[in-house]
Write a structure and sequence with these properties.
With 324 residues, the chain is mostly helical. It is built from 14 helices and no strands. Helix 5 packs across helix 8 and helix 9 packs antiparallel against helix 10. The longest helix has 36 residues. The protein is globular, with a radius of gyration of 24 Å.
């Protein structure tokens, strides 16, 4: 029975992303486990220090913890045991806090998604707006200012920009808190830090896309029908530019995740990046595997949303059938 072409295309996208999600989980979790095993130092001693404090750790304490957690077993057996637990949807417990990893991740994942969503929305509104306005006034003051903004936003490292925002808006002006979580004002500075770099990229892509569309044949044909510039822009240029920009959102997901790791540390934001750094420091292997899996799945989820949005905006390429 034949279904709606767009619905079938959406189902194919979901199936492809599900396969990708499984591959990402398998690769990232295994790789992070191997990397932790190759790090220098005694894993049991570091975990014991995380649990009891450095001044309470002795060789006997580390040995007892090693036997309790099964760290004295062969590495391959530990990995197989973890994979068996994962297949039963059990990510285990943190070796430091003894809390289930899923409970820990539910707290950190929510904070990271909140920060990511606000940063993406801010970057899209500012970047796309500046890029479109600059191209519509090509060669003018706004165009030159946008070019300067693109260069500065890409040249500024996120950690340096975050520190600069803290000094100006928290220390000097006292307008916004440098750290904290739970209030709207807490998310402003970390989201702005992430959004600045992305907004420059969005502005550049938007300006180039609008420039190409303005010279397109279908836009010229729309003008010959007597449509106003505003109508041509909203009906033909903006919609087609949206297809490119939405696809670009997925490509920026990796950049955003990398930035989240740094920004969460700078602002003490209780997200996945913050949790991952602490888990690596304390050699908390289940938490390391859990957080890396979650970060990988966030990237896959963003790409899935982008694919479905692009399909909704322009279903034509996915409805074509190859005729033998």
């Amino acid at each position: 029975m034949a279904g709606h072409p767009t619905l079938l295309a959406a189902l194919r996208i979901v199936r492809r992303r599900l396969v990708q999600a499984v591959s990402v989980v398998a690769f990232v979790a295994t790789l992070s486990f191997v990397i932790v095993q190759t790090l220098p130092g005694d894993i049991a001693f570091r975990i014991a220090a995380g649990r009891y404090g450095y001044d309470q750790v002795t060789a006997a304490t580390a040995d007892a913890l090693r036997a309790e957690l099964g760290l004295d077993q062969p590495v391959w057996r530990q990995l197989l045991q973890w994979w068996g637990d994962v297949l039963r949807l059990d990510l285990g417990s943190s070796l430091v806090t003894a809390r289930p990893v899923t409970d820990e991740l539910s707290l950190y994942l929510g904070a990271t998604l909140q920060l990511t969503a606000v940063a993406l929305a801010l970057a899209f509104v500012v970047g796309a707006g500046l890029g479109a306005a600059a191209q519509l006034r090509s060669g003018g003051l706004l165009d030159r200012a946008t070019t300067l903004w693109i260069a500065l936003s890409r040249a500024m490292p996120p950690f340096l920009l975050g520190l600069l925002l803290i000094i100006v808006f928290s220390v000097q002006l006292g307008w916004l808190p440098a750290t904290g979580h739970g209030q709207v004002r807490n998310v402003v500075l970390p989201a702005a830090t992430l959004a600045v770099g992305l907004s420059g990229l969005f502005a550049r892509v938007t300006r180039d896309t609008v420039a190409q569309l303005q010279d397109a044949a279908f836009v010229a044909f729309a003008r010959t029908k007597g449509l106003s510039d505003g109508t041509v822009l909203s009906r033909h240029v903006a919609r087609n530019a949206g297809v490119t920009l939405v696809a670009y959102l997925g490509a920026q997901a990796l950049v955003l995740i990398e930035g989240v790791l740094v920004v969460e540390l700078v602002f003490a934001w209780p997200g996945l990046g913050h949790a991952l750094v602490h888990a690596v420091f304390w050699r908390d292997i289940p938490m390391i595997q859990g957080t890396t899996m979650a970060l990988g799945l966030v990237v896959v989820a963003i790409n899935l949303v982008v694919d479905l949005a692009a399909l909704a905006l322009d279903p034509r390429p996915r409805t074509r059938e190859v005729v033998a």
